[in-house]
Amino acid sequence: MESATHGVVAREGTRPLANLTEIAIPIHNEEKVLVASIHRLRRHLQKHFPYPFVITIADNGSTDRSWELATQLARELPDVRAIRVPVKGRGGAIRYAWMHSEATVVAYMDVDLSIDLDAFAPLVAAVMSGHSDIAIGTRYAQGSFVARSAKRAFFSRALNSLLRNVLGARFSDAMCGFKAARRESIQPILRMVTDNRWFFDPEMLLYAQRSGLRIHEVPVVCIDDPDSSVHVIRDAADDLRAMVGVARRLTGGLTSPWFVAVWMLCTALYAVLYVALDRVLPMWWANALALVVAVLANTAALRTFSFGVRGAARAIRYQLATWLDFALRLVLSSMAITALFLIGASVPAPVEAAVVFGSIAIASWLLSRLLSRRGGTVEPSYGVHRR
Questions:
Q1: What whole-number distance in Å separates Cα of residue 362 and Cα of residue 365?
Q2: Angle 37-41-46 from CA coordinates, rounded to 5°
């Protein structure tokens, strides 16, 4: 590995590696912002961060002057180092840096520093104190503020909704580029992660949750870089493919046929119930009741047999969460359809579909807001504590 490594900062009265936090900054062709961002981050940490730190610039195949600038920064600043990562992808760069770290806490953030740095000390403190194994920034909790394009916001919320409803995720924002973890806890998880690109974060968190690690969420202020090189639609498609792969691994390779079988059985159950109930109930009631039974049956089957949910308490919790999600979707979509019906004019099918889809998206947003609050604050910890 070609690298330029300089000393770890050691505050007065501390050993070089005691309570050390290593912050990985993955880069790929970031010559325009790299120097300014590293200096800004370093100034903030020196002034506001209570632990010793080292900043690791993880270059991931840059073809511009990024590597030259990274090595220059490492030569000039005693608490900055630069490494060249032999694998491609942002996720691969983070994993490589974390796997080769000796710090107590490993963290990462994106080079554009779109997340307000004031949240970094609370993020690391949750892990350093032993309260949690992993701490993640969330843009979807009380106290958060987000300024970003509508397209990026939509795809982000859609992905997080799929993670919760399909894979049983119990964290609100998998994709926020602002995370910290105890090195000894996260390194075994990293060996399980296969995605080297943008789905690295959700995959890591899903495996961590499944392994019983404690995940803490910190609300953040996020102002996206309008010049970001992220390709939203292409990356969203890649994420969906990666999600299918993770689901297959979580279910022993049987996800596709299992999902199809469960979906077909629950669809048939809904059809039979609707036809029977429609004879004795108004259409809206027949539809709602049939959907309730089918959705709960579908969720119970998938999470019990595919995702290892066992025990009455956990099953009830999953069913209640599913009911809340379904109720919001049903109410808002029914209101939207009723409003279209009351207009009286013939509404084209694409318009009706768009209205229903929009109402479901609003329901997902409302659910994420509701689940992110508990007594007016962010839920302090997600996941199952080790026994």
A1: 5
A2: 150
